């Protein structure tokens, strides 16, 4: 697998985006749960979405998948970045240095999230949370491929959470995917495009423990392998004490960024799944017809 990733990474980014677009569209045309979920989730968020937009969203998923070997296997970052140096990095530096409490950087499943930790790590250390695969060999592979100078990989386990807290208390940054569905007991229900979504409470807990400011960033994928443009939202002040209210703030911020590039969100991800053992979502809990 390492050799395959290396081989793919040698191709120009525009070729990978072209091939990924074809593969993503083919996957969405196959009958099955993935294609249905992509269509339903996109139309829930954007009822006026056209078939052309859905096709572009499918292509974006394929491009996202082929970006992984490209960025994981290259020792140096070779991608054109726009609005990073003149807008995003100065704002992140201001937030991190002004408070001295570290910085919580949230990167949703939007655009190219692999380029963000690598580009940030060229300047400062960052500890990134990841959900380790169940297979030990695959877990080791992912951690080895994604880790590099100035990037520490923290598994979504108690040990990994301690790594995040320690990094923040050292005044460093941490990176988290805020729309990753957590396990039961580790999240709260909050609206996401009008439908209850089980949302991690870790971000709120980290801020309560450290007082770190929160910022949300995504890298918009430009056409024909032309690079990436950064988008930024700052979540002002402290999140609410109520976990559901805090999750709602995070989800609204994700929605705001998705509106900047609707077809580049990972609509095929099962964002609305009900983790085993989690409480019922609010609508189901109040619906007398629910068994």
TrEMBL record:
One of its GO terms (molecular function) is acyltransferase activity. InterPro entries: LipA_acyltrans. The keyword rRNA-binding does not apply. Keywords: Acyltransferase, Cell inner membrane, Cell membrane, Membrane, Transferase. It is found in: Cell inner membrane. CDD domains: LPLAT_LABLAT-like. The keyword Acyltransferase applies. This is Lauroyl acyltransferase. It comes from Cupriavidus malaysiensis.
């Amino acid at each position: 697998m390492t050799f395959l990733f290396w081989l793919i990474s040698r191709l120009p980014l525009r070729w990978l985006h072209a091939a990924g677009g074809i593969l993503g569209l083919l996957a969405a045309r196959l009958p099955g749960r993935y294609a249905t979920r992509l269509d339903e989730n996109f139309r829930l968020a954007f009822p006026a979405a056209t078939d052309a937009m859905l096709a572009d969203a499918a292509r974006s998923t394929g491009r996202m998948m082929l970006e992984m070997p490209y960025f994981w296997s290259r020792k140096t970052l070779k991608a054109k970045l726009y609005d990073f140096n003149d807008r995003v990095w100065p704002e992140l530096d201001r937030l991190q240095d002004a408070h001295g409490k570290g910085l919580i950087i949230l990167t949703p499943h939007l655009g190219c999230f692999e380029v963000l930790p690598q580009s940030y790590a060229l300047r400062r250390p960052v500890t990134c949370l990841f959900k380790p695969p169940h297979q030990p060999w695959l877990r080791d592979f992912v951690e080895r491929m994604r880790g590099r100078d100035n990037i520490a990989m923290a598994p979504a386990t108690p040990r990994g959470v301690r790594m995040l807290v320690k990094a923040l208390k050292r005044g460093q940054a941490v990176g988290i995917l805020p729309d990753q569905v957590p396990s039961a007991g580790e999240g709260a229900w909050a609206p996401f495009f009008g439908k209850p979504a089980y949302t991690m409470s870790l971000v709120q807990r980290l801020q309560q423990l450290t007082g770190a400011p929160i910022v949300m960033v995504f890298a918009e994928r430009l056409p024909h392998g032309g690079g990436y443009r950064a988008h930024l939202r700052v979540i002002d002040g402290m999140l609410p004490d109520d976990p559901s209210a805090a999750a709602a703030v995070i989800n609204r911020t994700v929605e705001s960024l998705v509106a900047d590039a609707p077809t580049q969100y990972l609509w095929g991800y099962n964002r609305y799944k009900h983790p085993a053992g989690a409480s019922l979502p609010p609508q189901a809990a109040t619906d007398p017809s629910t068994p």
